[in-house]
Amino acid sequence: MPSLTSTFSSADEFSPLQPILPNLSTLEEMSVLIARIAELNRAKSVEPSIASSAEVFGQDEYGSDGDEFIPDGEDGQKKEKRETQTNEANSDQFSEMKNDKMNLLEMFIQFEKKQKQGKEHLNLRQNFWDANVCHEKLEIIGEKKLTVQKGNFNGWSSIFAKHSILLNNNSTDIFYYEISVKNKIGFMSFGFAVKQQSKLEEIIRYGNGTYVYESAGGIYINGEGIGRNDKYSYGVGDTVGIGVNLSTRQISFTKNGLRLDCLFVDQHFADYSFSFYPFVSIYSFGDKIEANFGPNFKFDLAIL
């Protein structure tokens, strides 16, 4: 049995689905900067308008007719000093706005660079469901062969993708895919498993080399139920995914673009002599899913 390091929140101690923290943090910082820049722009535009309205009525900011009251012993130097301070404040405000814009630009550059790096390490072979490794009660729909629907039969039926995960580190560092649930009455599950040791008329989740995410919220690793959480369950309208980073051996599960609060590190993942294939198992008549093998996903691969 491969050694696993895992974290899993039980139903009693569940914390919400974890957002993509690095990217979410970056986006939040960018949002704050954008709001700050907008506020500075508004402040800059408001000041002239106030001055203009005062000029219309022939008054200055003190409400007089333009002649500022200057106490005995004071002269125009005070007014000049105040104008200098105002100009310096405006200059500082402009400098602050310029720095914020530069920081925002740098964040966008780093954000795009990170996304690009994630896709560069992705296995981009065009994948699809394999009609030759498909239960007879499952129908593959569409020219791209990405949609699968259950026929007139209640009972487990499974199907595998055409191409496997490439397990040598020279070919790819990341493998990830998603399914979107189009119709669901009963149970379903998906993940990756060893095609050669799986039966199409059974639910795929037992035995070594199975990494499974079930619709009821259960996670199975190498045939063992690691845990189940209702918050992880999925149905119609949800998009769920599974991925592995072969360089770190980290296995992740996602739901609607967010990574679940459970991570697994299988140190022997790439040591198996057999290949893993994406699969889906469907139980109920009429249930339907659509796969997405990339390269654009709801989940951001930059942190996988």
Automatic annotation (TrEMBL):
<feature type="compositionally biased region" description="Acidic residues">
    <location>
        <begin position="62"/>
        <end position="74"/>
    </location>
</feature>
<feature type="compositionally biased region" description="Basic and acidic residues">
    <location>
        <begin position="75"/>
        <end position="85"/>
    </location>
</feature>
<dbReference type="Pfam" id="PF00622">
    <property type="entry name" value="SPRY"/>
</dbReference>
<protein>
    <recommendedName>
        <fullName>B30.2/SPRY domain-containing protein</fullName>
    </recommendedName>
</protein>
<dbReference type="InterPro" id="IPR044736">
    <property type="entry name" value="Gid1/RanBPM/SPLA_SPRY"/>
</dbReference>
<dbReference type="InterPro" id="IPR003877">
    <property type="entry name" value="SPRY_dom"/>
</dbReference>
<feature type="domain" description="B30.2/SPRY">
    <location>
        <begin position="107"/>
        <end position="298"/>
    </location>
</feature>
<dbReference type="InterPro" id="IPR013320">
    <property type="entry name" value="ConA-like_dom_sf"/>
</dbReference>
<dbReference type="InterPro" id="IPR043136">
    <property type="entry name" value="B30.2/SPRY_sf"/>
</dbReference>
<feature type="region of interest" description="Disordered">
    <location>
        <begin position="56"/>
        <end position="96"/>
    </location>
</feature>
<dbReference type="InterPro" id="IPR001870">
    <property type="entry name" value="B30.2/SPRY"/>
</dbReference>
